[in-house]
Amino acid sequence: MKEFDWNHIRAFLATAEEGSLSAAARHLNLTQPTLGRQVSALEADLGVLLFERVGRSLQLTDSGTELLEHVRAMGEAADRVALAASGQNQTIEGRVAITASDVFSAYLLPPILARLRKLAPKLVIDVVAGDDIRDILRREADIAIRHVRPDQPDLIARLIRDADGYFYAAPDYLDRRGRPRTLQDLKTHDFIGFSDNDRMLEYLHPMGFPITHDNFRAGSASGLVAWELCRQGFGIAPMAEEVANKTSGVERVLPDLSPITFPIWLTTHRELHTSRKIRLVFDVLAEALAKP
């Protein structure tokens, strides 16, 4: 098996994340020609083109995009090994604020925070439950977990994975109203709204859901409240599969229905490259959220 120079891999990773050779060279404290030679050397070793120039910026080719996923995992692992070997996890301290939806904050973040506490016991983690990306721009949060990619140029965004969601209801609700066997059976069922029923209908109608505003008989802008209404028998609601798996008292509706897919984006500001505490939290979140 061919061995690759870690410096070449690190040069590729920095260039992919920074978007240009000049920015990557500054980040790695190298000259731009040196960095360019390292990227070219990796392309030669692999026999593929990793970047193509678009205007003044570099854009990953298909081969580069595929390689990036593996190289990021290598880089994150190397960072964790270095921290653990030097004992620096124990010295990382300060506050890091994570913002996520209230449902994700309550159901998915606690086990990740428990792991962070073991890795860096002096860190203080503040969870900001909400969906406003401006939390990051106002520096009210350091890292955001979102389901849409932010378009602000000052932010770094990484697509972690696409997650699956399904429709659920309480067993006692289904006992009372009947278990739907087809999409047409949903006409007579109650649904739980998550504040924007118009948007939900726009998404569901192309999937063949024959429901209208009249089907939404309860709801809340709070995802936690809406999910609890579902759990207590007020109707049917969509939810991420991994959240539903952690919730007692719900049953999947139309289990053969194709899942709703939605992205999980991890977003932060450019201090990711200079702050050890943000880097550690970001990497742990990325690793944990990548596993359904």
TrEMBL record:
Transmembrane segments: none annotated. Residues 4-61 form the HTH lysR-type domain. Pfam families: HTH_1, LysR_substrate. The keyword Ligase does not apply. GO terms for molecular function: DNA-binding transcription factor activity; sequence-specific DNA binding. The keyword Methyltransferase does not apply. InterPro entries: LysR-type_TF_proteobact-type, LysR_HTH_N, LysR_subst-bd, WH-like_DNA-bd_sf, WH_DNA-bd_sf. One of its GO terms (biological process) is DNA-templated transcription. Keywords: DNA-binding, Transcription, Transcription regulation. Belongs to the LysR transcriptional regulatory family. This is LysR family transcriptional regulator. It comes from Shimia isoporae.
